[in-house]
Specification:
By secondary structure, this protein is an all-alpha fold. It has helices at 25-29, 32-35, 43-70, 76-112, 117-150, 155-195. The longest helix has 41 residues, at 155-195. The chain has 6 helices and no strands. The protein has one domain (41-195): Four Helix Bundle (Hemerythrin (Met), subunit A) (Up-down Bundle), CATH 1.20.120. It binds fe (ii) ion (FE2) (2 copies). One fe (ii) ion is lined by residues 52, 97, 101, 184.
C-alpha cells in the first residue's frame, strides 16, 4: 500500500466468537453438510442464503475497489462510478434485508421455537451495529462523489482522505457480515428444517 493509513474515525465493536453452544442444539442434529440434501431445505431458504452470498460479494467488491483507488490502480472517475453503483446496492439491499428479518422473519421463527430467542436478539443487535457502520459509509461515500464532481482546488488530497475512511468502513462491513451471516445461517437453517417452515 502506498497511501498513509487513516486513523479510524470511530471504533467498531465486532462480536467475537460464534453463538453460544446452547443455541446450537439443532445445528448438531442438522449440520451444514446435510442441509442441501434435506427435503425440508426449500427454495425460499436457498434464496435467502443466495442474498447472503450477494452481500459477501458486494462488500468485498466495494472494499477491493477502494484499495485499488488508494493504490492508484483505479482512476477517480472509475472508482466514483463503481462506488456509486456497488455501494448503493450493498447499502440498499442490506437495509431491506435487515428490516424484513427484524419485523417478519425473526418473529416468525420465535413463534415457531422460542428456545432460540437469545440468538435472534444477538443477530438483531448485529443489525444495529451494521446499520450504524453503513450510515457512516454512506455519508462518506456521498462526500467523495461530491468532491469528484466539483473538483475544487486541492480536491485530490481530500479525496485520499475520504477514501481512507471508506476503506475503514468497508473493511468493517466485510468483517461484520462475515461473522453475522455465518452465525445467522447456522442458527436459523436448522430451525427451518426441523419445523418444516418456509415452503
Ligand atoms: Fe441478518
Ligand atoms: Fe440475513
Amino acid at each position: 500500500m502506498t497511501y498513509k493509513k487513516e486513523r479510524p474515525v470511530k471504533h467498531v465493536e465486532i462480536r467475537k466468537g460464534p453463538l453460544s453452544d446452547e443455541l446450537r442444539i439443532l445445528l448438531d442434529q442438522y449440520p451444514r453438510e446435510a442441509w442441501e440434501g434435506h427435503p425440508n431445505f426449500k427454495d425460499l431458504t436457498r434464496q435467502w442464503m443466495r442474498a447472503h452470498d450477494m452481500f459477501r460479494h458486494l462488500s468485498s467488491t466495494v472494499r477491493r475497489n477502494t484499495e485499488q483507488f488508494l493504490d492508484r490502480a483505479k482512476s477517480e472517475d472509475d472508482y466514483a462510478r463503481r462506488l456509486s453503483h456497488y455501494g448503493s446496492r450493498l447499502v440498499g439491499y442490506l437495509h431491506g434485508h435487515h428490516s424484513w428479518e427484524d419485523y417478519e422473519f425473526f418473529p416468525e421463527l420465535s413463534r415457531t421455537d422460542s428456545r432460540f430467542d437469545r440468538g435472534l436478539e444477538i443477530l438483531e443487535q448485529d443489525h444495529v451495529v451494521l446499520d450504524d457502520v453503513l450510515n457512516n459509509f454512506t455519508d462518506d461515500a456521498h462526500e467523495l462523489l461530491q468532491i469528484v464532481q466539483q473538483q475544487n482546488s486541492g480536491y485530490r488530497d481530500k479525496l485520499q482522505d475520504i477514501a481512507g475512511k471508506l476503506l475503514y468502513w468497508s473493511n468493517n462491513i466485510e468483517m461484520l457480515l462475515d461473522r453475522h451471516l455465518a452465525d445467522e445461517e447456522d442458527l436459523i437453517v436448522p430451525i427451518v428444517i426441523h419445523h418444516k417452515i418456509r415452503g
